[in-house]
Specification:
Elements: E1 8-12, E2 21-28, E3 34-41, H1 54-57, H2 66-71, E4 77-78, E5 87-88, H3 91-109, E6 114-118, H4 124-138, E7 143-145, H5 152-161, E8 179-183, H6 187-190, H7 192-204, E9 209-213, H8 219-223, E10 226-228, H9 235-248, H10 254-260, E11 261-262, H11 264-272, H12 276-283, H13 287-299, E12 302-306, H14 308-311, H15 316-329, E13 339-342, H16 349-354, E14 361-362, E15 366-367, H17 371-381, H18 394-403, E16 408-412, H19 416-419, H20 423-432, E17 435-440, E18 453-456, E19 465-468, E20 473-477, H21 490-505, H22 518-529, H23 541-547, E21 550-551, E22 578-579, E23 598-603, E24 630-632, H24 634-639, E25 647-651, E26 656-663, E27 671-675, E28 715-721
Parallel strand pairs: 6-7, 6-16, 8-9, 8-12, 9-10, 11-22, 12-13, 16-17, 17-18, 23-27, 24-26
Antiparallel strand pairs: 1-2, 2-3, 4-5, 4-18, 14-15, 19-20, 20-21, 23-28, 24-27, 25-26, 25-28
Helix pairs in contact: 3-21, 4-21, 4-22, 5-15, 9-11, 9-12, 9-13, 9-15, 12-13, 18-20
The structure holds iron/sulfur cluster (SF4).
C-alpha cells in the first residue's frame, strides 16, 4: 500500500455507495489539535484507484470553516415543555433523561410504543448497537432506517428471485461487459466515479453498448448508445416486452432456465401478452428500440445498473424482480461482466442490511418472520426471545406518530422533516409525538426544531468503524481529528443510553452492551454472520488494516474475498434454484389527470448530497446548480405563459411550493423535475412569508406492498404562474 505522509489517515468517502477510498490530510493547529486540511483519492482503494468526484474531493471543505461550525451540534440540549428553547445540559443529564423517558413510555404503553429511525449514513458498528438496543433490549422491532427510502425494493427484488439480499456483481464487471443496461439511474451524477469507470471501459471497448431506460434525458442517457425514454413507472411493461422479444426470437437460454431456475412457464404466459407494440403504447418507447434493447441484452455479457428509478416506486419490488427475470432468462448472471447490480445510494445502506438494522430484518440477513432465526439471534445476544412481529417501517412509523399509537421516536443521523414523503403529515407526526430525540452531527436540520433532546454526534473525519459499498466491499472509516465540541460517536451514545435502560428494564442482569471499542462491536457482528450468505468469519480489523478493503463473503479459512456470486449457478434459495418472479405491470400510484397534469420526478444533482447538511456549507459545490428550480420542457414553459426563471406554484394533493422554472432538454413535455436536496434554508421567499419544506411537500407516502418503500419518484402535480 502507498505509504502515508505524517498527519495522513486512510478512510472512506461518506457520500455515496460507490465507497471511494480517501486519504485525509491533517495539520496541527496552534492549540495542538488536528485539523483536516485536504483530501485526495486513495490510489490503493479498489473502488476508485485514486479518483474522487467533486463531492469527495471537497470533503475537507465540508469539515472545517465558519459556516461548518455554525451548523454543528456542539453539546447536548434539552427542553421539558414544547415551545421552550432547548437549554444546554451535560451528557449525564441528557443520557439519563433519554433512558428515563423511553423506559417510562415502554412501561406505560408497551415496547411497541417507541421507535428508532436511523440512517444509511451510520457505520456498521453504530447500526449494530442500535438494532440490538431496539430488538434485544427495548423488545420492539420498531427500528427502521432511511435506507427504507433508498434500497428496500432492491433487497426484495434479490430475495424474491435469487434468494438473498446479495448484489452478485463487482465494479470490475464493467471492464468485461458487452452491454450495460442502466435503468432508473443516473450514475453520471449519482455515482460519478463508477461512471468514470464505465467511460474507461467504453473507451477500451468501443463495441460496448450502453442502454439507458429513464424518462429524463440525463447526462447518462445522453451518453448512451440507446436511450429508452420511458413514461414514468412503466419499467415492468418495458422489461416484459423485452422478455417477449427474447422468447419470440429464441434468445432465451433454455438449458440455463431448465438447470438452474423455477417458475419460468408462468412468467412466459404473463409476458406473452406484452408485445413490443403494447408496451410501446404504455411506456412511449418506439417498438424497434424495445426489440434492439432485447437483442443487445440477450447477447451480453450484460450488466444491469439500477437505482432509485426502480426502487422508489409503489411497485419497486416487482420492477427489480422483472429486471432480474431478464438476467435469468438470458443466463446473464453468474459470469464475468454480467448480472443485476443494484447501486447503493447511501454510503452504508449495505452495512445496515447486513446487521439487520431495519423493521423487517434480523442480524446476518436473517428473517424476522422465522422463529429459528429469531432464536439464533436471541441466543447470540443472550436474551430470552426477540419480538416476533415486524416493526413499523419508515412511512408507517410517522403515520403511527401522527395517529398517536407511537409515542416516542429517537431519530439518528437523518432528517425526516425534509427527506420523508408527504411532509405535512410528517411534521404533524413530530409535533404530536410525546418525546422526540434527535441524535445528529448537525443542529440546523429541518428536524432539529422538533427535538426535545438533541444529542451531538461525531461525523465523517471524527469516527471509526466500517462501511460496505455497493459491491459488498467492507472498508474502514478512520478518525482524522478529535470530535467537534462535546460530540460523541453514535455507537457510544447508543451504548450509554442502553446501559441506563438496562438498569431500569433488566436490573441485576449482565449487560448486553459491554463494548469499549467499535472493533468489539464489529467482532460481535461478525459472529452473527458465520454460516450465513454474508459470512465474514475470516475477516478482522487487522486484516482490513493489512490488506485493505475486502468483499464478502469471506469465511474463516477462505483464500480471499469473493469477487462475484453465483459463478456455480447455485443460488441462495433452499434448493439452489433461482425463481422467476411472475409480476405484472402496475401503473404509478397517482396518475396524472386534468387537475394535476404534470408527472413530477425527483433526483440528485451532481454536486449535492441529500438534505445538504454537509455539502450545503461548501461554496464551490453550488457552481453547478446555484439555486432551486423546477426543470420543465421549453414547450411547457411557453404553454404555461412563463418565462425562463419566472416563479411558479407547484401543487400536489398534499402541498404546494414555489420555485423558478428552468427549461431543460432532458425533460419531455408533461414532466417536471425537482432535485431532492433543496430544503427550507434554500426555499425562502415563499408567498405570504410561508416556509416551504422542499419537494417532499409534494410527494406521496404510498409504498410498495412488499418492500414498503414509498413512491418518491412520482407524483401528479399542477404548475401555475406564481
Ligand atoms: Fe464519494 Fe461517491 Fe464521489 Fe466516490 S463517487 S468520491 S464515494 S461521492
Amino acid at each position: 500500500m502507498t505509504p502515508l505522509r505524517p498527519g495522513e489517515v486512510r478512510s472512506t468517502c461518506c457520500y455515496c455507495g460507490v465507497g471511494c477510498g480517501v486519504i485525509v490530510e491533517t495539520q496541527e493547529t496552534a492549540r495542538g489539535a488536528r485539523e483536516i486540511t485536504g483530501v485526495r483519492g486513495d490510489p490503493d482503494h479498489p473502488a476508485n484507484f485514486g479518483r474522487l468526484c467533486s463531492k469527495g474531493a471537497s470533503l475537507h471543505l465540508s469539515a472545517t470553516g465558519h459556516r461548518y461550525e455554525q451548523t454543528r451540534a456542539a453539546h447536548p440540549e434539552m427542553r421539558i415543555e414544547r415551545g421552550e428553547q432547548r437549554r444546554r445540559i451535560s451528557w449525564d443529564e441528557a443520557l439519563a433523561h433519554v433512558a428515563g423517558r423511553f423506559a417510562e413510555i415502554v412501561r406505560k404503553h408497551g415496547s411497541d410504543s417507541v421507535g428508532l429511525y436511523i440512517s444509511g449514513q451510520l457505520l456498521t458498528e453504530d447500526y449494530y448497537v442500535f438494532n440490538k438496543l431496539a430488538k434485544g433490549l427495548l423488545g420492539t422491532n420498531n427500528i427502521d432506517s432511511n435506507s427504507r427510502l433508498c434500497m428496500s425494493s432492491a433487497v426484495s427484488g434479490y430475495k424474491l428471485t435469487l434468494g438473498a439480499d446479495a448484489p452478485p456483481c463487482s465494479y470490475d464487471d464493467l471492464d468485461h461487459a458487452g452491454t450495460v443496461f442502466i435503468a432508473g439511474a443516473n450514475p453520471a451524477f449519482a455515482h460519478p466515479i463508477l461512471y468514470r469507470r464505465l467511460e474507461d471501459a467504453r473507451a477500451a471497448n468501443p463495441a460496448m453498448r450502453v442502454i439507458v431506460a429513464d424518462p429524463r434525458r440525463t447526462d447518462s442517457a445522453s451518453d448512451a448508445t440507446l436511450h429508452l425514454p420511458i413514461a414514468p413507472g412503466t419499467d415492468i411493461a418495458l422489461f416484459h416486452a423485452m422478455l417477449h422479444v427474447m422468447l419470440w426470437e429464441g434468445l432465451v437460454d433454455r438449458s440455463f432456465i431448465e438447470a438452474h431456475t423455477e417458475g419460468f412457464d408462468a412468467l412466459r404466459d404473463t409476458v406473452r401478452d406484452m408485445t413490443p407494440a403494447i408496451a410501446s403504447g404504455l411506456c412511449g418507447v418506439p417498438t424497434d428500440d424495445i426489440v434492439t434493447a432485447a437483442r443487445w441484452f440477450a447477447t451480453g455479457p450484460t450488466l444491469s445498473l439500477y437505482c432509485q428509478g426502480l426502487n422508489q416506486s409503489a411497485s419497486g419490488s416487482a420492477k427489480n424482480a422483472a429486471l432480474i427475470n431478464l438476467h435469468l432468462a438470458s443466463a446473464q448472471i453468474g459470469k464475468r461482466g454480467a448480472g443485476p447490480f443494484s447501486l447503493t445510494g447511501q454510503p452504508n445502506a449495505m452495512g445496515g442490511r447486513e446487521v439487520g438494522g431495519m423493521a423487517t430484518m434480523l442480524s446476518g440477513h436473517r428473517d424476522i418472520n422465522s422463529a429459528a432465526d429469531r432464536d439464533e439471534i436471541a441466543r447470540l445476544w443472550g436474551v430470552d426471545a426477540l419480538p416476533a412481529t415486524a416493526g413499523k417501517t419508515a412511512v408507517e412509523m410517522f403515520d403511527s406518530l401522527a395517529d398517536g399509537s407511537l409515542k416516542a421516536v429517537w431519530i439518528v443521523c437523518t432528517n425526516p422533516a425534509q427527506s420523508m414523503p408527504n411532509q405535512s403529515l410528517v411534521r404533524q407526526a413530530l409535533k404530536r409525538a410525546e418525546f422526540v430525540v434527535l441524535q445528529d452531527a448537525y443542529a440546523n436540520t429541518a428536524t432539529a426544531p422538533f427535538a426535545d433532546v438533541l444529542l451531538p454526534a461525531t461525523t465523517w473525519g471524527e469516527k471509526e468503524g466500517t462501511v460496505t459499498n455497493s459491491e459488498r466491499r467492507i472498508s474502514r472509516v478512520r478518525a482524522a481529528r478529535a470530535p467537534y465540541g462535546e460530540a460523541r460517536d453514535d455507537w457510544r451514545i447508543a451504548v450509554d443510553v442502553a446501559r441506563r435502560l438496562e438498569a431500569q428494564l433488566r436490573p441485576a442482569q449482565p449487560s448486553l452492551f459491554s463494548y469499549r471499542t467499535p472493533e468489539a462491536v464489529w467482532n460481535e457482528h461478525r459472529a452473527t454472520t458465520i454460516g450465513r450468505d454474508l459470512d465474514i468469519g475470516g475477516l478482522s480489523y487487522a486484516l482490513l488494516e493489512a490488506q485493505g478493503p475486502q468483499q464478502w463473503p469471506y469465511p474463516a479459512g477462505a483464500a480471499g474475498a469473493t469477487e462475484r456470486l453465483y459463478l456455480d449457478h447455485r443460488f441462495a434459495t433452499r434448493d439452489g434454484r433461482a425463481r422467476f418472479a411472475n409480476v405484472s405491470y402496475q401503473p404509478v400510484a397517482e396518475a396524472v389527470d386534468a387537475r394535476h397534469p404534470f408527472a413530477l420526478t425527483t433526483g440528485r444533482l451532481r454536486d449535492q448530497w441529500h438534505g445538504m447538511s454537509r455539502t450545503g456549507t461548501v461554496e464551490k459545490l453550488f457552481s453547478h446548480m446555484p439555486e432551486p428550480c423546477v426543470e420543465l420542457n421549453a414547450r411547457d414553459i411557453e404553454r404555461l405563459g412563463l418565462d425562463e426563471g419566472a416563479l411558479a406554484h407547484l401543487t400536489s394533493r398534499r402541498g404546494s411550493i414555489v420555485m423558478p422554472v428552468k427549461s431543460s432538454e432532458a425533460m419531455q413535455p408533461g414532466q417536471a423535475f425537482v432535485a431532492m436536496h433543496w430544503g427550507e434554508e434554500f426555499l425562502g421567499g415563499q408567498p405570504g412569508g410561508r416556509v416551504a419544506h422542499g419537494v417532499n411537500s409534494l410527494t406521496t407516502g404510498v409504498y410498495d406492498p412488499v418492500s414498503r418503500q414509498p413512491e418518491l419518484k412520482h407524483a401528479a402535480i399542477r404548475i401555475m404562474k406564481a
